[in-house]
Structures are given as structure tokens and as C-alpha cells.
Amino acid sequence: MPSKASNFSNKCNDIKNRKKANDVILTPPLLAIAHIEYVKPLTRKTYTWFDPFKNTGIYYNNYPVEEKQKKWTEILLNKDFFEFNEKVDVIVTNPPFSIINKVFEKFWELKPKIISLLIGVLNLTSKRIDDMKQHGYKLVQLKLCCVNEWFGSQYIVTFERNSKRRQTIDFDRKTYYARDIQKTAITKKIEPENYEPIQIEPDDLSKYDFVEKK
Ligand SMILES: C[S@@+](CC[C@H](N)C(=O)[O-])C[C@H]1O[C@@H](n2cnc3c(N)ncnc32)[C@H](O)[C@@H]1O
After folding, report:
1. Which CATH number is 183's domain given?
2. Positive or negative CA dihedral for 160, 136, 73, 210?
3. Among 51, 72, 73, 75, which is best to mutate for testing ligand 1, by the most ligand atoms less than 8 A from CB?
4. How many other β-carbons are positioned within 10 Å of the β-carbon of residue 181?
5. Fewer CB within 10 A of the end CB, N or C, for the chain?
């Protein structure tokens, strides 16, 4: 029987050698909501929030501001993040990892006050933190969290531009389950007007994911 360590290294190799990246991974709604709540105290009511990678809108739909203060892009809905040039204050999202360096460069061009990402622990390298620093962004929040079906653990990492804030390190004791939520993902290009959103009411969340205390 293969050991845990060899399972881990096989999985790392599979990811490293795969031909086609899988960038359409939906965040469990309760984790997206917890992520937004974590960042909210760093923001002002007047800020504009932006989800560059909206897909079904798990983040976008839960941003704590009015519709006119929200922006989005999503390549599968024919709005490319790399063509977006409006002023925004807060980016809170789960980005596509196969193009993460290019995504960081575009963030620096847009210059939001806050950039907060759900990112695999192995993807938050010291080089990336340093690059952020070079562009004026201080790492202010780091929270460890775990999604049962995902590879490894995740960080919620928040960077703030020109920040004087102290850093906080935290961890989430819950395990989030992605389960059926992935079935609702947009996986092929469609026009925005052909997208019929699946609204997830707070009472229905248990159909889509579960949170268990360890
Ligand atoms: C990891 S998924 C996150 C989806 C959603 N934000 C969530 O958390 O459930 C990343 C999304 O980025 C989208 N994407 C990839 N490249 C993009 C681009 N250039 N512009 C806009 N969206 C892009 C993918 O289609 C995918 O839906």
C-alpha cells in the first residue's frame, strides 16, 4: 500500500505534468462567504469590489456592497480580465492558478487598495510575497483553511497597498466540502445573457456544501 508521502508526491507530479490546466474550480459558498467576511473589516463602505474570475458568482453575489459598487469579469462569459481597466478598490477572489503570475501583474496595473486571494499553500511562495512588496503591497492577513476534496491546504491571503496595518495570522478549524457545487460551474464559453444563474439561498446551502467542526 503506497504511503501518504508517496501519494502526496505522485499527486504533485500529476499536477506538474498535466497538459491542460483545470482552472474552473468553484469555491464552496460558505468558504467564499467566510473569505469575504474576513476581508470586510479592512474595507470602507464606499469601496468598489471586483471579482475578476466570477464563474457562477459565488464571490460576486456575496460582496457586501450595492450592485453599482460591484464589477466582474469571466472569460467564459466573454469578459476577459486582461482587458479590464476600470478603477476598483477591493479584489476578493479564487484565481486561476495556471496563469497566476500574469494575474499578479495585471493586479499591479489596476492598483486596488486590497487584494485578497484563496490560494493553495504551495502557490504562496516567498518570491510572490516579495513581488507584491516591490509593488507596494504588504501581506496583512494570512488564514489557513481546508477544503476536503482539494489538493493540500489553502490560504486566504490579503495584501494591502501602502499599509500600516499589523499582520494577522489565523486558521479556520472547519473543513469545507465542495461536493455538488462543482456541478453548477460554467465550463464552456457562453454569452452572459444565456447564463441562467443558480441562486443559492442561505437555507439551501447544506445542499451544496457542509461545514463540520473538527
Ligand atoms: C478557480 S475558478 C474560480 C471561480 C469562482 N470565482 C469561484 O471561486 O467559485 C477561476 C475562474 O477564472 C476564470 N478565468 C480564467 N482566465 C480568465 C480571464 N483571462 N479572464 C476572466 N476569467 C478568467 C475561469 O474560467 C474560472 O471560472
Report:
1. 3.40.50.150
2. negative
3. 75
4. 26
5. N
